[in-house]
Amino acid sequence: MRGNYPEVDLSRQVLAFAALRLEAWLETMRGPDGYGGPVVHWWQDNLLYTGPGLDWRYEGMILGYLKLYRNTGDERWLGKARRAGEDLLRGQLPSGNFRHSCFEANPGTGGTPHEAACDVALLRLAHVLREHGDPWWETLAEAARRNLWGYILPVLWDEEARRFRNLPADPTFVPNKAATIAEALLAWADLTGDRDVVNRYVLPSLDAIVAAQVRAPHSPLDGAIDQGMLGSKGTGRYFPFYIARCIPALLRGYEWTGEERYRDAAGRAMAFMMRFRLPDGSFPQVVYRNGQVNRYPQWVAGTGDVLRAMEWARRYGMDVNPEPTQLWLVRGLQLHGGIATAHGFGGIETQRLSGRPDVRDRLSVCGWADKAFRYLAGMVQRGNHLPAVQSPPEVEMDCVFRDERCLYRETATMLEIRGESGWRYRWEKGAPWASLVPRSGRK
Q: Over the stretch 176-190, which tens digit does the pLDDT of each residue have?
């Protein structure tokens, strides 16, 4: 039963204006072949390759533009969604894979969940274009089909285990990645009416996600979904962000089947997340089986996906208050319009913070900002009386870069990090590679 909830106190206008400022910043990150820029992540960073990444950044950007179009009726947003779809088509390989689809491991191909996220975007765009009688929808659908049936299903599906591998040579089942594949296949089924893919691939994947969930009613870990399963053995690591990315797929499974176990799993997962939400609306990075919690780094832009999961939960009557997390997200809005990636990268090893923020906190990264954009775009509606969004201004901020006190500077055309003796890092926006100077170097 869907719940009815009043609007939160945080002004919808504030969220909508944040969406438009963020969109203006995203425009500065476009090069000739798509959206680029450096990448930082909990797993590893990639500051040197700055060319287009045809990865999960396109999921949030295309779906964000489609939200803007549906909510306002303004054709320019549909045009930008189409432009992003063209990026994916140009970057598709004969194998069906997408170039540079490994996010923090770019340039590379075959990234998970990144290629499936691109398929979600292509198929949802195709659905809108078909509604408008635009025949280009078939080209988009065919591109997604080539990836799904050329790579994801024949290479990543393990027929014996009836679940998806993490990578061709890694049999680990990663629930959040399988959830993204499930969303892609459900988008295919919505577009084509193909129920066979749901029965053969989606429902077994959702069952495997449910099997990876902690069932311990009197434990604070109840509802947590393990980050990875090798056979029946889990890692004992529970990441709130990745658990959030499982919730929409589980509830889509409930919509398709009416099976309460999917709705129950989504509710337990959300309850686990709310149990560990901090008073400022943020979430820890990881909770371990033994009860240890690593707080840092805490995602800022990425909480757009957490808020998306909260939206889904509220539709099905779950008592979730998004306002603290909305406030956490908009506090990350920077003067140039981008959204801070995280808080606390400097404490990733010690779990203690001191002094200036790490540069990785300061950076806005397309593949994190898109998640904020998709969520915030839903707040922009026809008739919103918002001030015009100007080009992002030049921004300078103190930071720490490789243990050196530095100045972070970003404009519409470049990004630079300067130490006392000169610049340490420089990227001319649109260029496929950045320049890095060792601390002992001079420039």
A: 999 999 999 999 999
